[in-house]
């Protein structure tokens, strides 16, 4: 039609140009959306791995800080051997801490990018919630929902997945509408950097606890050994004194 000199040539060109612009904008938004999702997945994977590492370290914390040093020399030596095995595990866990550090440094979502949400007011789900009536909607922890009405102090009307309904007001919190759920998590003092600092501090404290316990176990073993050797020496001296008394008689 353009080549044939259609009478509406100018209008056709304008429409084609508009369509072309809209197509480019759509592709840009799709690419940005994919990048945001990739970044969010990367951050979520880090937080999941960090939580797993934290759980492991908290399981070891009572062992590393145990105040039982043994009731005798044999018990102390057994505890020391067991503690040395624990310290070997803690030393090996340094590789996991190193991997987490590298993962944290590689996270592109270190700072929160601004995403246009068309000025809508949003809330983020603090807990999972399953709808109990047709007027309610279900949500998962971390979901971002569009807030439609918050006049009622107990129940807020929201929209999620093209559905509108009510959720408990105590189960959600208002967030910056320009941020995704994972980005809001980063803002709420749970950024990759601050989380990594928490993990490293927890590991350092665990190593310190373990080192202190090992030192005290060694001191306890030495003390029991000294007592035993002193007792053996005392017994030896008494035996020699008895022999000397018999010979004098």
Report on this structure.
The chain is α+β, with helices and mostly antiparallel strands. 61% of the residues lie in helices and 10% in strands. A 5-stranded antiparallel beta sheet has the order 4-3-2-1-5, with no helix packed on it. A hairpin with a 2-residue loop joins strand 3 and strand 4. About 3% of the residues have low confidence.
Strand content: 5-15%
Main sheet summary: 5 strands, antiparallel
The end-to-end distance, rounded to whole angstroms, is 139 Å
Mean pLDDT, all residues: 84
SS summary, helix count: 5
Structural class: alpha+beta
Number of E-type strands: 5
Helical proportion, percent range: 55-70%
Order of helices and strands: HHHEEEEEHH
Tell me, briefly, the overall form: elongated
- Order of strands across the widest beta sheet? 4-3-2-1-5
Low-confidence stretches: 111-117
Radius of gyration, rounded? 34 Å
